[in-house]
Amino acid sequence: MERLAPALVVAGLLACAAGLLFERTWAVLPVGRFGESLLLMGLVALLAWPLVRLRDWRWADAMALAWGVLLAWLGGVAGLLGAGVLCAGACALGSLLPGAGRPLPALLCGLAMLATLAGVSLAWPIHHPWTWGPLLVGLAAWRWRALRTLAQMARTEWHEAVGTAPRAAAWTVALLGLASSACWPPTLQADDLAYHLGLPWQLTVNGRYAMDVRDQVWSLAPWASDVLHGIAQLLTGQEARGAVNAAWLLATAAGLWRIGAHLGLEGRARWGVLALFASLPLTAGLLGGMQTETAATAVTVGLVAWLLEPGPIRGRAWGVGLLVGLLFALKPLHGLAILPVLAWAGWRRRGQPLAVVPMAGAIGLALVVAAPSYLQSWWHTGNPVLPLFNHVFQSPWFQTAPFDDPRWHAGGGLALPWRITFDTSAYLEGWDGGAGFVLVALGGAWLLALVQARTRGLAIAASLVLLLPLLGIDYVRYMHPGMVLLLPVLVAVLQPALAPRLLACVLVAVCGLNLAYVANSNWLLHVGAPKRMLAAAGRDAPLFARYAPERSVARQWRSEGHAGEVLLMTRPAHAEYAGQGHSPAWYSPAWMAIADDANRDASGMHWQAVLRRHGIREVVLDTENGDQALRAALASMGAERAPLDGDAEWWRLPATDAPQ
Q1: Where would you find the membrane-spanning parts of this chain (predicted)?
Q2: The overall pTM is greater than 0.90
Q3: H helix or E strand, kind and range, residue 81
Q4: Helix (H) and strand (E) counts for the chain?
Q5: Which of 273, 322, 403, 575 could form a disulfide with 112 if both were Cys (CB 3.0 to 4.6 A apart)?
Q6: Do 226 and 254 belong to one domain?
């Protein structure tokens, strides 16, 4: 098989080229966005050049600083400060755990503990800057020596990593920074506006989270990711999504570096793994939103890196339990997908005596970290995973038919990697090529990894992490953690099979192809949001006006003391209104029924009663949508239209129409 290795690698590359040609994927290449990416990398290189030329900095160091400055300027200094305090407190707390003496395990374990602490207390009105701020700063002050040690370790590891291959490091930092540009725009994606923003803004505005599924049926779904976004946000009162996601990006890169070291990769090959990760279209695509896969990828990779550390697992058992629990607390699918990794880790250590007490403690910790959202959902609705499996639990808060999304059942069988690569739009809200080309271009390396004894175990485990989430639904986003975990295994096969120059050429070719199609991973990148954010000099308002006028209303509503409820008839974009926003959509069966009933009365009298009964003071309408009955009600009630940029109308009811 070793003799066939180069031929298999070449076969994968040729298959990828054939797919691009015969599947006509070249026809959907976002040429303009690709050009913008190259220009942005050139701009950062230009910013870094004075440090390299005049201060003798290394290119990787100078560009890392330049990307960080751009993140602070365009993504928001306040958000970066909030995320920084969160991560410092997490590292301080995580460093207390036995075995978590390195920066990445300390950070991830600390985040798991903070997410649990917040999760069990979400309903209590104690979540304020003056509670979380002193707590996190106090932890950092208490564990200052440990934090200083972790910082020195991180700095030393970075310095040594760049020193192994300075040129490869520079190009990889350029790609990681380019991916981080997706963190610049404000939160604009549909699921975030309808759901994920709800918890952070309720903590920020109300100091607590209302366990209420009437306006959002997903309100009690596993919330660990949103909780961590919420903690970072309430520290400064400004959204910290971009900065928190940037932290997850760096954590994933650190975990991949450690896995590469354990697999025996040389410096340039390890940087190649990071470059592949940074170039994957979904890496940047996910950074623009609040979906759980960004966090799950970091935790999955970090957990595997920790499991590969030499020495008995006993000292790390509790930390492993924390991270497994955190994956379940992010989403049930992530927790189930990690089980093959745990089985593989157990098999690797099958000759060691079983540590019963540490294992029992790990299982107990995993349950404690994972449980809060499931228990709350079960208590409030009768279904621990509402709205999933409601045909089993029969909760009155949602339909009892099996929950399913018919869009994501394209199938594929053994051809699934091919179809995901070249027919991506059938598996993702994106365009073809938006999943990247690793599965086909490096398909030969994947096959080799599965059969070679040196890589077989981890390759099988990573493949299962990739494929298991697709058993119930053919949705590419869910396989991203597994795809990233597979990358160091693929490069570990390529390194001995190819000469160093040829290996570099293969990695550059795959990274370049991925980079060309990054904008096809979601609509936000497809419209060039990072470029628009740069053109707006970091101001959110132009993007709100163009893509989410509901957010402009929310900003004004908060500035006026958020008096009264808000009805949004444009789309379900009510999450930011901290429990006082309502949208008639499938997320809220109750409001769907109310709106359907009220629309039957063309005179608008029924709508008048609804608006008064629910204390609605603000109404946002779609300019192109009729809503004639509601318009009649607004006219009869003396509503005034407020100025609002974008394709929406903002109507304000007089105070006299407040509920009695």
Answers
A1: 6-22, 34-52, 64-97, 104-124, 130-147, 271-290, 317-342, 354-375, 433-451, 458-478, 498-519
A2: yes
A3: helix 77-94
A4: 33, 5
A5: 322
A6: yes
